[in-house]
Amino acid sequence: GAVDDWSRFSHWNTSTGIFEQAHSVSSARGACAPSQENLSLNHRMRAQWVIFVAVGVVLLMIGAVLERSTATGNVRGVSAASQELLERAVYDTLFQENEFGANTSLGGLGPSSRSGRLGVRPLSAPQTQADPFPRNPSVPVSSPNTTSSIKRLAFLFLIKDTILHERLWDQYLPVSTTKTANTTPISIYIHTRPNIQLRLSERFRQHVIPSVPSEWGANLVESQLQLLAYALAEPSNYKFLFISDTTVPLKPLPLLYQALMRFDGSSFCITPRWQSGYAYGNLPKVRKIFPNQTLWRKADMWSILSRSSAEYLHQSAPRISYQMRTTFSDRKAMFIAPDEYVFISTLLHAGLASDIHGYKDVPLNNHVHGGDCFQWFFWGDFSALTAPARAAPTLTKCISPSSAGNWMRKSEKLVQGKLSKDLRKKLLAELSVPVCYTQNPYTLLRLTDVSLSQLVQSRMLYARKFHASARVVFTLPAHGPVGSHVPLADFLLRKLKALESGGV
């Protein structure tokens, strides 16, 4: 498991300021006498494990009592108490529960004031294909290099087996060459499902990192941590953008870069308070590790992290991984998606609210989404006050593919046929209604040029979820024959190019 893998990195090298593998430490001891600091570290670790073993003995004694008390009818209560004691003991011993910002017991994997350097180590994972990512992420890296020629946006793609709009992203993201390596403003990292046949071009395939097990709606947190581990190995990466396989950009790259670099903090789109309050009230295990309810928040998982927030989450990876495998492991009992809670709540409990841009302006009991809502998506029960609804007023309702019928045939009639004015108006009205799959968030299959133009001209920086075959219907003659339609990528690239050159 991830905890076992990380526990091997239990030695802090005071001369280099990085973590070293336990087996490296052992081999070093054979060559020279151990330092006083190493002995002190060993004594602390031994003391912690002695406590852990002692707790285990106590629990075994409790188990014996349970067996004898079966006939009394009190087993349920005692068993629950002993289970809670076990979880608390394991967590306290390994990860110093509730001490956000303190070093963990496993070799001090929390942030250290001794050095600004990180020992970047991704979670244990099988290879998805031969040598998918030649970079060795366990090498030490410095804090952001102020002498670097550019600060980069790290695009962290979290996908299943493909990027649905790869052609769009291929033209949108500049290719880094030997000559432009020091000036390319972006870097790319891609996490896929483990052991899956990839459907990616060679350009994107070379950016795939080793995968960790993931489950949509249950545990994408460890996949996000894996992406951060690799992206942090590049000192020039300054902001970290989580991107889904259905996402498309809504601003030209220079404008996106400018918008995100004008402030230093992280960006979260924070949901109404009642959503996080409901989860907190019904999850007693969560209340143990996130004791302050006001700092337990829900936000869109497709966040944008600053370097400092990314480093803190990376150093907290052993504790977070343990939480995912214990506190958040019972998906049916949880009724929440942990990836919408864990990152923002961990940062808030660590006292890093000041690093979340706009957080101070979000009311404690906000009734609509607040913070930095830069990504558009279509949720069925959004009110007209939400940022996504305000961004595209024509995208507030849609119909299913079955209700749309053979709409392409209607498009042909409208483009080619000699129709009456009333029939043309009727067909155009039908083609102007968005078509989508209505599982939240909605997946768009068809929208109009007007709707997409509204998104591009809004404050939104990118949008999801768009089907791989999404089409844009022309309703304005300036874009093409009224009623005709083109692939989403074709029209969007045209709009982004016009926006970059000063058009609309």
What does this structure look like?
The chain has a four-stranded mixed beta sheet. The model is unreliable at 1-39 and 65-147 (pLDDT under 50). The chain contains 20 helices and 17 strands. A hairpin with a 5-residue loop joins strand 13 (435-437) and strand 14. The protein has helices spanning 2-7, 22-31, 36-68, 75-95, 166-172, 202-205, 221-231, 253-261, 273-281, 284-289, 307-315, 317-325, 331-334, 342-349, 387-391, 401-404, 407-416, 421-431, 449-457, 488-500; strands at 11-13, 18-20, 118-119, 140-141, 152-158, 186-191, 237-244, 248-249, 269-270, 304-306, 370-371, 375-376, 435-437, 443-448, 462-463, 466-473, 485-487. It has 504 residues and is of the alpha/beta class. The longest helix has 33 residues, at 36-68.
Number of helices: 20
- Provide the gyration radius in Å: 26 Å
Question: What coarse outline follows from CA principal-axis ratios?
Answer: globular
Distance between the termini: 51 Å
Strand order of the largest sheet: 6-5-7-10
* Total DSSP E strands: 17
What is the average of the pLDDT values?
75
| Helix percentage | 25-40%
> Which class best fits the helix and strand makeup?
alpha/beta
Largest sheet: 4 strands, mixed
Low-pLDDT parts are 1-39, 65-147
Strand content is 5-15%
